[in-house]
């Protein structure tokens, strides 16, 4: 099994989302509890396409959330804290 790179997976996921959107365009809630495709609601095709779109949107969001953020300030140990003083003294 071959793993996809981030760019390959992003392209694949966007393709799946676009296809789900195209499918969903033909499945809208109509009058009397019927889908515009002619099935009685809930329409299983609409549910599956919505679930697919949400799944890939969530996966793309997880990819974006792992982006490294810049370091704004370096943390310095509090030198007045006795525990830190003992620790630093022990390292020298
Ligand atoms: Zn439908």
Description:
The protein has 92 residues and is mainly α. It has a domain at 6-65. 55% of the residues lie in helices and 0% in strands. It contains three helices and no strands. Helix 1 (6-24) packs antiparallel against helix 2. The chain binds zinc ion. The site of zinc ion has 7 residues, from helix 2. The site of zinc ion (ZN) has 7 residues, from helix 2.
In short, what is this structure?
With 92 residues, this protein is mainly alpha-helical.
Number of H- or I-type helical stretches = 3
Note the gap between the termini: 51 Å
What is the CA-based Rg, rounded? 26 Å
The class by helix and strand makeup works out as mainly alpha
The percent range for helix content is 55-70%
Mean pLDDT over the full residue set: 87
Q: Main β-sheet: number of strands, strand sense, barrel status?
A: none
Strand content: under 5%
Bound small-molecule species: zinc ion
| Residue windows where pLDDT falls under 50 for at least 5 positions | none
Q: Quick one: how many beta strands? A: 0
């Amino acid at each position: 099994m071959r793993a996809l790179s981030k760019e390959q997976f992003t392209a694949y996921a966007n393709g799946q989302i676009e296809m789900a959107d195209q499918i969903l365009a033909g499945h809208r809630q109509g009058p009397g509890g019927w889908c515009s495709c002619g099935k009685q609601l809930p329409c299983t095709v609409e549910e599956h396409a919505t679930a697919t779109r949400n799944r890939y949107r969530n996966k793309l969001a997880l990819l974006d959330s792992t982006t490294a953020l810049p370091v704004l300030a370096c943390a310095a140990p509090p030198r007045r804290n006795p525990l830190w003083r003992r620790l630093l003294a022990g390292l020298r």
